[in-house]
């Protein structure tokens, strides 16, 4: 059997599956393969009928989650912005049933997302800043040949539609060692989902209620979240936050050089910023030196908590992974961590990370990460994370310090490493990942895609005006 990550096969328990897997898009549950190759495509719909015809032709090629653990199978996913749903001619009642934050779009929520300064929408790539993106396609595969094949298939469905145009094509993946733009193994800690049919890996904790991630199922509060109407449109769908970052590799390498006199010191600092060594080995299990074998083992590399590190001397309170999943850390503000988890589908684009490149040119090279953040309440969750866990630190005892990897740093920002007898406070940490664009998408079920594709021109106009 194929594996989910190129390592050991998942612990299947399909009789425990309570989700309508053939209705759910594969990307919601299926992790990217290792290695991975793929393409993100953004489309604009200028003619509603052409857009619906395109979706109708494409939908049979969109993979469901029926065999979601088979990550080596290539697949394609489809998501639609609110502007896209309008452009496709959805009925007025259906459009109004979506949450306000989704309706206005990510750029309009810049204040709530703390997208300020260099991350403000006025500095985004033009296709995002003007909200032109209507449909997002993502193709994932485990080889370059398969990526080309499924992308060619998607292009065939687009042929002949003058009312649908391509805004952006962004290839991703194929980094040596499956590393992210700053040289770290990524995508390790994902939330287990109740009813998915797969037992959690060690360290993932108890399965989280499916309704936190997929509409139509009870969430952690015991009831389903409200969903778009009619039910065929909302059920088994979810929301997706799309965030494209450009990585300032030169600034990151200069920061390590300026704050570490040896390669060992620089690598330890890099591990302290994230909470893991570059290999993926967590500092809690390998506090002094890297352990690549541990980092490569999915049954061990996430099996830890912070019970033996209450002062953050192994894993700093303000590091990236402790912020994004505090686990059993005692927080200063009572928070149910499970309701703020998201499914992450991070992808890397551009040339590989070069630890020796200290140049300013490396700060402007088209290279970075695109994050797909999946949640049944993605807008509220992403805005909470941006406000409370990424661009602040009080919740975890890190004061006004921000996430050292994806936070928007102010001038003179610091990063604190607790240690005895005196903590180490590092000054002048910079913004290492600059936001270049983003949008909120709705990822419909397979039935919802068919429903949208089969809307008639007359009925959609009448319903919108009625």
TrEMBL record:
Cofactor: heme b
Matching InterPro entries: Dimeric_a/b-barrel, Dyp_peroxidase
Matching SUPFAM superfamilies: Dimeric alpha+beta barrel
GO molecular function terms noted in the UniProt entry: peroxidase activity
Superkingdom classification of source: Bacteria
Keywords: Iron, Metal-binding, Oxidoreductase, Peroxidase
The protein's name in its UniProt record: Peroxidase
């Amino acid at each position: 059997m194929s594996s989910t990550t190129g390592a050991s096969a998942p612990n299947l328990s399909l009789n425990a599956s309570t989700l309508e897997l053939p209705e759910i898009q594969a990307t919601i549950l299926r992790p990217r393969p290792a290695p991975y190759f793929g393409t993100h495509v953004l489309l604009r719909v200028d003619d509603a009928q052409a857009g619906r015809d395109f979706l109708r032709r494409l939908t049979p090629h969109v993979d469901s989650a029926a065999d979601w653990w088979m990550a080596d199978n290539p697949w394609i996913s489809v998501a639609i912005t609110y502007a896209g749903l309008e452009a496709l001619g959805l009925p007025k009642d259906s459009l109004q049933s979506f949450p306000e934050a989704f309706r206005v779009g990510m750029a309009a929520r810049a204040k709530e997302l703390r997208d300020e300064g260099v991350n403000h929408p006025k500095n985004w790539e033009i296709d995002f800043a003007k909200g032109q993106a209507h449909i997002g396609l993502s193709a994932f595969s485990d080889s370059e040949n398969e990526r080309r094949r499924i992308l060619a298939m998607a292009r065939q469905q687009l042929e002949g539609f003058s009312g649908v145009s391509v805004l952006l094509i962004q290839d991703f993946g194929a980094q040596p060692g499956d590393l992210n733009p700053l040289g770290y193994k990524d995508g390790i800690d994902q939330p287990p989902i109740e009813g998915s049919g797969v037992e959690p890996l060690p360290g993932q904790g108890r399965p989280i209620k499916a309704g936190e991630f997929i509409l139509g199922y009870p969430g952690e509060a015991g009831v389903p979240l409200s969903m778009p109407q009619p039910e065929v449109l909302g059920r088994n769908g979810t929301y997706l936050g799309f965030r494209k970052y450009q990585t300032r590799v030169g600034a990151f390498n200069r920061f390590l050089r300026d704050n570490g006199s040896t390669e060992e010191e620089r690598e330890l600092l890099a591990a302290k910023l994230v909470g893991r060594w570059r290999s993926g080995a967590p500092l809690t299990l390998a506090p002094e030196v890297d352990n690549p074998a541990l980092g490569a083992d999915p049954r061990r590399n996430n099996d830890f908590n912070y019970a033996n590190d209450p002062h953050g001397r192994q894993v700093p309170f303000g590091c990236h992974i402790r912020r994004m999943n505090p686990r059993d850390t005692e927080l200063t503000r009572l928070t149910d961590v499970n309701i703020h988890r998201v499914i992450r589908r991070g992808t890397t684009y551009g040339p590989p990370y070069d630890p020796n490149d200290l140049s300013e040119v490396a700060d402007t090279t088209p290279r970075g990460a695109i994050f797909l953040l999946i949640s049944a309440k993605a807008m509220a969750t992403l805005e909470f994370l941006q406000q409370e866990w990424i661009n602040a630190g009080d919740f975890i005892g890190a004061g006004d310090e921000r996430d050292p990897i994806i936070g928007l740093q102010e001038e003179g920002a610091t990063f604190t490493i607790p240690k005895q007898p005196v903590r180490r406070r590092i000054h002048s940490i910079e913004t290492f990942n600059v936001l270049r664009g983003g949008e909120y998408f709705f990822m419909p079920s397979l039935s919802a895609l068919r429903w949208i594709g089969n809307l008639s021109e007359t009925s959609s106009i009448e319903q919108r005006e009625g």
